[in-house]
Amino acid sequence: TYVVSSKDKKHSIRKKEHKDYLDRLNRLNIYSYGLKFEINKNDSDKKRNRKQIKMNELQVGVIAEEVLELFDNATNRYKPLDETQKTAPSHIPSLGVNYNTLLCYTILAVQELTKKVKILEQKFEKPYNLQS
Could you tell me the pTM of the whole model? Predict the structure, then answer.
């Protein structure tokens, strides 16, 4: 699926600054799990079967509560652009993870790591350049 990401479809654009994203991502745990589905009496046989298959299917991912502690806008918990506006939607479903947002934080973490690697490379190249 595609997410609308064109500059002309966005407002209040601010470039994210590096804020220990690598450290935060390293604190996230990855789990394997099965999903829970309530099988109701009025579910059709086909629907029951589909739920049973989904419950037996191995999933891999993060836990939304842990993500919320480290990245407060990478879940479906309401976070307004303007912090003075606290009007949340009347119904927020079970806590979920926005993997698109986590991907963006992962890109920022890779950029942090790249910067650190470049500094180390420069540090180790200098002594060799002096001896040449």
Answer: 0.72
CB within 8 Å of 75: residues ≥ 6 apart: 64, 67, 68, 95, 96, 97, 98
Q: Which residues sit opposite 33 in a β-bridge?
A: 59
Closest to 115 (Cα-Cα) out of 2, 18, 30, 37: 18
Gap between the Cα atoms of 121 and 75, Å rounded: 37
Q: What is the pLDDT of residues 7-55, one digit of tens each?
A: 887 777 777 777 899 999 999 999 999 888 889 999 999 999 999 998 9
Within 10 angstroms of residue 20's Cβ, the number of other Cβ atoms is 13
Phi first, then psi, for residue 22 (nearest 5°) are -60, -45
